[in-house]
């Protein structure tokens, strides 16, 4: 089978990580045509069974939908199937299309976008459903919401996220450094937030809980992975709460590399994921792998994903409960017996199996 794969979102957060992790597994027994820029495709240049097609058309652009380059379409249409890691599908593809919809948060959570923005996103989701032979998603929760909102009659298959290769890399050498006591800069009173400024991520609740917890433990520190300017320009409620907290109590890391994020996970005492909504929610999984305890909201998708993991749940939106959980779990031992349930290898197998089943002669 020859599979055309859209790589144009590599470097764009979680979706970029998702497709980057799947590609090596796709390539093991299949010929693949990767669409993207030179920079996006370079990590796979030494792998076998791979061809490249330069394409710098922006995802979700007018050009993508109505005037996709004919030379790129020619190469795509010479393949057996087309796979996109998101719901953007170029116009002009006449081979079977398969796509992943990670969540439908803009349809489930009011206020994340304007009426027009939400309407346009619904059209994009619906177009992906209509143009795809099958839809993949990252949780049973997301599957149910996709079917509910989009009335999807196509197959919807769940393939969970997994541990990224950058977390697996150099594990033994890092463990050796840790055992010698070198390069250790952990803060025994730091908690970590990894997310964005959108309201469904629950940063406002965490800030309230943090302020409450500091009344008991004044040296408590909060590390936020992101840029202070971006956070402060995105949510008026968050702006006001940040103003009420001492500047030396909160650290914004700015944009950081995967290796730097890995260090933040390892150095933190706790990860807190206070989300109101997620399609999967990967930071708790990454934190646990880095031997850092996680406190997470008890939203349905977290109950699904982390039911067998050593996490602590708090009542969603309840700052008092979150503060109590933070204070009572600061000194917990490192998490143990992390289940090996999720992997990108398993997800790639699910995707490839369905594609081959549908396109077989």
Count, helices:
17
Give the biggest sheet.
Answer: 7 strands, parallel
User: What class, by secondary structure content?
Assistant: alpha/beta
Mean pLDDT: 90
Q: Specify Rg, calculated over alpha carbons.
A: 21 Å
Would you spell out the secondary-structure blueprint of this structure?
Elements: E1 2-6, H1 13-27, E2 31-36, H2 38-41, E3 50-54, H3 62-66, H4 70-77, E4 81-84, E5 97-100, H5 105-108, H6 115-131, E6 134-137, H7 140-150, E7 156-158, H8 165-168, H9 171-180, E8 190-194, H10 203-216, E9 221-225, H11 228-232, H12 236-243, E10 250-252, H13 258-267, E11 270-273, H14 283-289, E12 293-297, H15 300-305, E13 312-314, H16 319-329, H17 344-359
Parallel strand pairs: 1-2, 1-4, 2-3, 4-5, 5-6, 6-7, 8-9, 8-11, 9-10, 11-12, 12-13
Helix pairs in contact: 1-17, 10-12, 10-16
